[in-house]
Amino acid sequence: MGNRILWLLLAVLFIAGGMFALMNPFAASLAATVIAGWVFIFSGVVEVFAGFRAKGAGAKIWTVLLGLLAIVLGIMILGNPLGGMVALTTIIAIMFLAGGVAKIIMSFTMEDRRFLWLFLISGAASAVLGFIILTNFPLSAATSLGLLLGIELLFDGAAALGMAFSRDHEEAVMA
User: Fold this and answer.
1) Nearest CA to 126 among 149, 108, 102?
2) Is the pLDDT reported for residue 167 higher than 80?
3) In this model, does residue 38 exceed pLDDT 90?
4) Count of domains in the chain?
5) CA angle in degrees (0–180, nearest 5) for 3-7-12
6) CA–CA distance, 121 with 69 (Å, rounded to integer)
7) Per the domain annotation, does 113 fall within a domain?
8) Which of 76, 91, 93, 123 has the fewest CB atoms nearer than 10 Å to its CB?
């Protein structure tokens, strides 16, 4: 089976997953929260093992402690996925809002003003998204992660589709 077919299969999988997530954002938000919980646990375990191999007592202690913190966070998210969904949505909303404000401020410090409007629009969009999520709380917590996941999967599917029909698909390694 050639790379083109693999890229096409990946595109179909991403697009189907994105459509499912957009049609059922609550289920997608819950799935994203559970996946995040498992990622925290897995990364925490890896970090603890890496901490025991670190050189120096300070590096060892901090790495193990951060790994244990990630494990505890993952267990807390999996123990209460709805609470985890609210926490993750809050973090994302704050990141959007802060990132948007930072982009707006940065746009006015640019020396080359030709593309200032791109930074302004990007910053405004991020800030508005963060504001919308925060002002629709807690309702937005039930669907925001799923909507973002759905949009991401659709764009990933479009990129995979583009790769399948480009000449680069022969050299590209599956992501």
Assistant:
1) 102
2) no
3) yes
4) 1
5) 150
6) 37
7) yes
8) 91
Q: Does 126 map to a domain?
A: yes
pLDDT tens figures, 105-146? 888 887 777 777 777 888 888 888 888 888 887 777 788 888
Q: Quick check: is 66 in a domain?
A: yes
Q: Which domain holds residue 121?
A: 3-170
Alpha carbons 131 and 47: distance in angstroms, whole number: 34
At residue 78, the pLDDT reads 92
Report the alpha-carbon distance of residue 28 to residue 43 in Å, rounded.
Answer: 22
- Average pLDDT of every residue of the chain: 84
Closest among 6, 2, 3 to 14, alpha carbons compared: 6
pTM comes to 0.67
Would you state the structure tokens that stand for residue 29, as one six-digit string? Answer: 């938000």
- Domain assignment present for residue 175? The answer is no
Answer for the pair 130, 98: CB distance below 8 angstroms, yes or no. Answer: yes
